[in-house]
Amino acid sequence: MAEQSVGTSFAEYQDFYNAEQETREKIRETTREIEKGLKSVIGVLQGIHQDVSSPHLKLTTEKCRGILSENVKPLFGNLNEKVPAGEYFRYHDNWKFLTTKLSFACALICYLETDLVANRETIASMLGLTIDPKAANIYLDMEDYLQGLLQMTTELARFSVNCVAKGDVRRPRKIFKVMSDLQQGFSELNLKNDHLRRMFDGLKYDVKKVEQVIYDITIRGLDSPQQLKPAEESAQ
Amino acid sequence: MASNNLVDIFRVISQELDARNDKTERIVKLSRDITIESKRTISLLQRSQLQSTAERLATFQKAEYNLARVRKNNFYKLARELENESPFYFNRSYTFGLQEYIEAISFLYYLQKGTLIAHKEVQRSLVFQDVGNPGEKRPNEISSDGKGNTPENNNSVVKDISEKKRISVHVSQHDYILGLMDLTGELMRATINANPVESIQFVQDTNNFLQLVYQGSLALYGYRTKELSRKMSTLLSSVLKIESYVYSLKIRELDTFGGALTTKPIFVDAFGDQQNRHYNDDYDSGTD
Fold first, then answer.
1. pTM of this prediction?
2. What DSSP line would sit under A31-97, residue for residue?
3. Per the CB < 8 Å rule, is A5 touching B223?
4. Does B16 belong to an annotated binding site?
5. So what's the ipTM on this one?
6. According to the annotation, is B186 in a ligand binding site?
């Protein structure tokens, strides 16, 4: 009797485990494809640090949007079919990296286009996702979105340095505005002592970096109207 | 397309985040209470090893009562918290309580029936009828409040769920197998604590049982999680301990009588207590 019950229990566990692995493997097939799209978007986005002129930024974001809608969006639809309903968090670790990093990319694209921070719905729709856990098997989780925003601030801090290096001395102020707004927003959240919290702790260094850039510009009077030559007015 | 209003974005997120974190906190608290109650029940059952048959039956009843109370007071609330949520998101917040409960209920089950409780039976014990009143109300107090049209005398939560809404605490196979690993440690202790003369059958059966579990667990080789690996090495040491205990019982039996222990009740009167004490000291290093 004992022999049978022990045998059954372990056999059940093995079946369960194997089925789970199978689902994971199917999910991985798709996430590997999404990763390719992600890599090319990130690669294209890196170009903003070389050429900060408005036409180039416009070109960059257009190109990124093209990749997203062609190579990423349909794949998330594909992934949605592979994730069993209601089991988002069971397999979350398989795509958490992707949704976080893609949130970052989308937030940066939106920022470059509009100088504003995109909300979760906007970013989710760029990826062909929803934000409603009940509407689909896979969606854009709040924590992934927030982590994406924090990754964007790090990128923007670097961008502000490169803007000045390439002659655009106006943009850092705009970047600073959005970063301090984000800092304000994040500080109002009751974060647990988790990964998100540690990322938020790093935000102040990004803000400081932009402050330093602005200080350098201001003390030299580089952004005063007399100093600005027409050619340097690259940002609109 | 991009919202200008960061304040709006963060207000919505803040509410959602707080709700999620608060829920996690409540679940962790419930899980901790479940752990405490389950541990108490396990200790109670461990003590039953030295009791007479009649006392032991009373202890089992007490243990059953304890577990029923845990289900009613803690698991029911947990099920309510998990309603319409992904159990997988909160699993890490309640898995330890659940594992401890599985350990307790499977220990009781083994002592009563000499076999392993099935996964579906554990799961069945954690299905409740939703009585629609968050937090305070207990499942079998519904009859007194006007809200539910539940029949009187609905003492068993699991019974008579028919068309009512069911809620449950999801027991994953992972939780179950981890709870089962914990059970083996308790069985090792119970065996060492048992009277080797009166309970010789129990000792031998449990020895076999643990060997079976170890044998079964070897099939999981290659897909162990970190936690399972740790528990499996504990399992092996339990198996080795119990095996050498059974061996030494046999040697002693041969030394003393050259025959079967069970047929020589005089052994109890002459040496029982002292001998027991000796083995307890030797093997039962794990007791609290």
1. 0.79
2. HHHHHHHHHHHHHHHGGGGT---HHHHHHHHHHHHHHIIIIIHHHHHHHHHHSPTT-GGGSGGGTHH
3. no
4. no
5. 0.80
6. yes
CATH of domain A2-232: 1.20.58.2140
* pLDDT class of B166 with cuts at 50, 70, 90: confident
Contact yes or no for A10 and B16 at CB 8 A:
no
A186/B10 Cβ within 8 A = yes
- Separation of alpha carbons A96 and A118, rounded Å: 19
Name the DSSP class of A232.
G
d(C-alpha B262, C-alpha B280), whole Å: 20
Residue B220 banded pLDDT, cuts 50, 70, 90: confident
Q: With an 8 Å Cβ cutoff, are B176 and A9 in contact?
A: yes
pLDDT value of position B143: 37
Give the start-to-end residue ranges of the domains of chain A: 2-232
DSSP state of A139: B
Domains of chain B plus CATH, in order, are 6-126+169-283 (1.20.58.2140)
Residue of A nearest to B174 (CA): A13
Annotated binding site of A for Mg(2+): 155
Q: Which residue from B minimizes the CA distance to A113?
A: B2
**φ and ψ at B166, to 5 degrees?**
-105, 145
Tokens linked to B123: 């799961």
Q: Do B2 and A192 touch (CB under 8 A)?
A: no
Q: Which of A1, A83, A89 is most worth mutating to test chain B (most B CB atoms within 10 A of its CB)? A: A89
Residue of A14, A184, A191 with shortest CB distance to B219: A14
State how far the Cα of B177 lies from the Cα of B228, in Å rounded to an integer: 8
B176–chain A nearest CA distance, Å: 9
Q: Do A17 and B89 touch (CB under 8 A)?
A: no
Band the pLDDT of A98: cuts 50, 70, 90: very high
Burial zone of A223 (CB within 10 Å; 0-12 exposed, 13-18 middle, 19+ buried) = middle
Tokens matching residue A36: 């390719």
Q: Do B6 and A9 touch (CB under 8 A)?
A: no
Contacts of B85 by beta carbon, 8 Å cutoff, 6+ apart: B23
Q: How far apart are the CA of B206 and the nearest CA of chain A, in angstroms?
A: 10
Q: Does B212 touch chain A (CB under 8 A)?
A: yes
SS3 sequence of chain B = CCCCCHHHHHHHHHHHHHHHHHHHHHHHHHHHHHHHHHHHHHHHHHHHHHCCHHHHHHHHHHHHHHHHHHHHHHHHHHHHHHCCCCHHHHHHHHHHHHHHHHHHHHHHHHHHHCCCCCHHHHHHHCEEECCCCCCCCCHHHHHHCCCCCCCCCCCCCCCCCCCCCEEECCCCHHHHHHHHHHHHHHHHHHHHHCCCCCCHHHHHHHHHHHHHHHHHHHCCCCCCCHHHHHHHHHHHHHHHHHHHHHHHHHHHHHHHCCCCHHHCCHHHHHHHHHHHHHHHHHHCCCCC
